[in-house]
Amino acid sequence: MSETKKPILVQKFGGSMLADLNGFEAAVSVIESYAGRYQLVVVLSAVRGVTDQLLRAIDRAEEGSDPSEEARSAISAQKRVLESLSGGPESAPGAGSFLNKAEIRITEWLEGIRLLQQCPPESRAKILATGEGFSSRLLADLLVSRGLDATWSDTDVLPPANDDQLDTLIDIDAASSKLSHRLGSETSILVLPGFYGKGPGGQIQLFGRNGTDYSAAAVAAALQAEKCQIWKDVDGFFSADPGVVLNAVCLSEVSYEEAMELTYFGASVISAKALSPLAAAEIPCEIRNAWHPLRPGTLVHSDATKDGVVRGISHLSEVASITIQGGGLQGRVGIVRRVTESLARNNISILLIVQSSSEFSITLCVREKEVKKAARALREEFHFEQMHGLVEDILVQPDRAMVSIVGDGMKHYRGIAARFLTAISAAGINVEVIAQGSTESAIAVVVEGRDAIAATRACHTSFFSKTTHIDVLLLGCGNVGSELLRQFQSQAGHLLRSHMELRVRAIANSRKLLVTNNAIDLDHWESALRDQGQPWTIEDVINIRERLGLINPTVIDCTTDEGLAGQYVALLRAGFHVVAANKKANTMDMAYYHELRTAAAQNFKKFLYETNVGAGLPVIDNMQALLRSGDRLGTFEGILSGSLSMILGVLDDGETLSEAVEKAISLGFTEPDPRDDLSGMDVARKLLIIAREVGLELELDDIEVEPVVPVDQLPDGGGEGLVTALQAYDQVFRDRADLAKSNNKVLRYVGKIEGEKCRVSIEETPVTAPLGAVRDGENALVLHTRYYAPIPLVLRGYGAGAEVTAAGVFADLLRTAWRPLD
Question: Which residues are catalytic?
């Protein structure tokens, strides 16, 4: 009984893994593991970098320059592999002999090209084919040295389908009989060079860039192989480029259509050209990692399970867009045909093309390296229309990128495009062009090149992640900032259980900025800031978003810096949310106040400042909710300073003003400069913010302010000098407190709004009034509104201290979180 014929398996090994002898040995190990079960056809790429070096040598020769350096680099890369063999070059006789002859021929061919300053297609094909010729012979030698039954074959078994010498196809029907004859029933392993074939006269013809993938696919189709394997240095198709999206996952299977779309839009896993013969013959294809051969990789086949609506996110950089527009295009038949044909004549591939519904414009994308040639071709094609004003000048926008989502399942679901665009919008990115094919297997958008990474990450989060990432840049790490970082640490576990991950990407004080590619280690942030931080400007902060590819970043300002507050508009326009404990921005002139809100709205970003008025009290949020519901403020009075609440409250107990201020400073209740509290300006700013929230167009100078003490007579800072200077006012305040007490009243520092009049001052408040019992750092706000009358709405709680202020900032931060749609 004759032995059952083994199934045929085609294996292709890519140049990315064939950089040195280790790569060839890894290929041999993979081949050995399959040799007993299959008849193998192995197709090889050139040693990594060799084809590019040969191309550069040809370019140099065409310029009339000396190409010898580039040629030597190509030959040397291959010689190094030979010389690293344990038995030396002599242990690979086929490869060694071929390389010696190739070196002589390449030198002669290049000299001829240099003299002519042009390279005929046949010469280019001969030179470039030497890379695969060497690597395939070397692999055959290595397999034989391991005792395997391996035979090298030239590519006369891959007959070209036409006469194009640089980018032809394989005549698969003709290849079928030739390959079957060469393989026979006895050959265990047939080794072939990829990338080129040979015509009837023996002339070499190339299969185009990445043609080795196509060679392997055509061989598999011609032999009706059981399977085709593409062995690389990556695991397979990923949900996104793992170099860009760290949590990208390897896809276990994809359909031919999905693989084509992913490859077309930048996933350089397999040549798109290779997928056509595989799909036509329904040959399944495995993408596997030769360095980790036990990993399953990705199976490309027609019956791929649709276990997700979107299977992958791809981005293609170094793209340029070209727009042709003008009234002369409207109603003209054949305009698109003229566009495509003019580019085809110049061998330029169109990556994407869309036409406005009004027929006023056509936008297309090409690779950036071809954009000048493309624009020139189009200007020549539409020269007449431009001369007569029918077409405007052709607009070229370089440095663009195409980001696409791919998945056969998209055609069965509504709202995928909306979700895609929402994700990109959440990253603060503008979409310039959008295109969706009739198969609904891919949707592509064009964005600026610098936004490609952020767009890809945002889309991956939207479609693949259950976790919301909150990226934070903290400016100001004093009492409140330091406490906020402690709260981040303590709440990290709870956030993760709620599918949120908070990552502090930058921390700054007034002198230094610390930025990391990943999250800052909050156990050691102080030493890291001290040792690794760098001097900074607001431009350094703005650049962080693009530098790290942040999706939805938030700047938290825990400083009192007016200059930084004046940069909020720039931050919002640059794609950052802004959470401000700093009150200065909201109390600058009304023009800036409105500009802030306009910038937030136009850029779909949030400007949040709940702690500006009541620290941890939900003052702003409640007031905005009342106004949205149609309520209207009548009068307002409130104790808006936790520090002054404590200071004046302590006077009730018989302590002096200086003692009370010293106690407030030690407990961290005051502003960094306590004079801001004592001047009344901190309360004035808070009252102004409330007034503006209810619609009053007021400036800070419109607030009538009675200071606690004249601060121009007090020394800088909050040390002993300040406390000593305040002793001069101790008796004055003792007398005022005693007088108030005799009238069953207490001293409180109160802000009031009546009509359009705003005032902050020390008032004698009845003990039984809502503000009379407020002390010890509490804040209280009493709102008489249309809905809350005659009994007012009272908000009361602690309004000072780093802990409650940080908690309020934290709450604002969580409101910036962008959650992917379910």
Answer: 686
